[in-house]
Design a protein that fits this description.
Elements lengths: L2 H8 L1 H4 L13 E3 L4 E9 L10 H17 L5 E10 L6 H18 L2 E9 L4 E9 L14 E5 L4 H9 L7 H12 L17 E4 L4 H8 L5 E6 L7 H10 L3 H5 L7 E5 L4 H11 L3 E9 L5 E3 L5 E2 L11
Parallel strand pairs: 3-4, 8-11
Antiparallel strand pairs: 1-2, 2-5, 3-5, 6-9, 6-10, 7-9, 8-10, 11-12
Helix pairs in contact: 3-4, 5-6
Length: about 325
């Protein structure tokens, strides 16, 4: 059973009378009257991270992934809770020191504060992070409008390349290995863009499961489709180099997730303010496509104008 089928069948009814739950179809809980925004995520060894050989980096990846859910809603996170299950090996004195140091560094970087958590003994290593922010307004899913432009921040695909390098499925030079490893463990969150998004984005989501999968989640309850232009989807020079040398598919790399960039839609009339914002903040924001009527099938167009078959939409949990 797909995770969204599971939610719909067993849990949607429980949240029906609670407006803040957003029908369990968004990244956050939002209580407008209390200006409260909350997100929760669980991370399991072997699923969300390969192993715990570098706990300092794993913890940073986990924290950034959680904060990303708040940031993409146009809100700056303020507090977080972290719970962990593990054993004496995973929570050794040395590892705990590294975890504490990393959390302190992330708190300073993103101006957030630890406010609680829990620890449980288990042979299976996992973490759960709950992030909190405060705002009278957020950017929801499923608020795209016909003819909206589709935008994405930063570059896509570097994290997946890092994962493949860590798994030794791709061989690259030491310098490239270090670059992609950092992109996998230390996603570059668009923290400064968060409260600017409210000025122009109609709807938004962070890219965790993959560009295509998350775009479809973004508009899943609307009678809309999308058209993406492959050449406009941004990738780094380093990734382009690898794809060219090893004759790999760009589409397969940008569709795998773990990028934690912001995917959003906006009216065409907002293009000027979007470009101005990108320039003033010194970040990359790329227009990659268009929101269309559902009378047309969603499609990806290559440089020659040909439609590309989508083989991998992204990651999904199945039970």
């Amino acid at each position: 059973m797909h995770e969204f089928q599971l939610i719909k069948k067993f849990f949607s009814k429980l949240a029906r009378k609670n407006k803040g739950s957003l029908n369990l179809n968004d990244d956050v809980f939002f209580d407008k009257s209390k200006k409260l925004v909350v997100s929760i995520d669980t991370y399991v060894e072997g699923v969300h991270f390969i192993d715990f050989n570098e706990p300092d980096l794993v913890i940073k990846k986990i924290i950034r992934s959680s904060l990303s859910d708040i940031i993409c809603k146009g809100v700056k996170p303020k507090y977080y809770l972290i719970s962990g299950s593990g054993n004496k090996k995973s929570f050794s004195l040395n590892n705990l020191k590294k975890i504490s140091k990393s959390l302190n560094q992330e708190q300073k970087k993103f101006n957030v504060f630890l406010c609680g958590g829990d620890t449980v003994y288990s042979d299976k290593l996992s973490f759960t992070v709950t992030s909190f922010g405060f705002s009278p307004k957020i950017i929801f899913r499923n608020k795209a409008e016909l003819d909206d432009d589709i935008y994405v921040t930063g570059n896509l695909g570097d994290s997946f390349a890092g994962l493949y390098i860590l798994k030794k499925k791709i061989n690259v030079s030491n310098s490239l290995s270090k670059y992609f490893k950092n992109k996998y463990y230390l996603p570059n969150l668009q923290y400064e863009l968060s409260n600017k998004l409210l000025k122009f984005a109609n709807t938004s989501i962070d890219i965790s499961d993959g560009l295509i999968a998350d775009l479809e989640k973004l508009i899943n309850k609307q009678k809309l489709s999308y058209r993406l232009f492959l050449d406009n989807i941004p990738i780094s020079k380093n990734l382009k180099k690898i794809l060219t040398q090893k004759k790999l598919s760009k589409l397969s790399y940008i569709s795998q997730g773990d990028d934690y960039q912001i995917l959003f839609t906006a009216k065409s009339s907002k293009s000027r303010i979007i470009n101005k914002t990108a320039k003033s903040l010194g970040i990359k924001i790329s227009k990659i496509g268009k929101i269309c009527s559902n009378l047309q099938k969603s499609q990806i167009i290559d440089q020659k104008g040909n439609k590309i078959a989508i083989k991998t939409k992204g990651y999904s949990h199945r039970f």
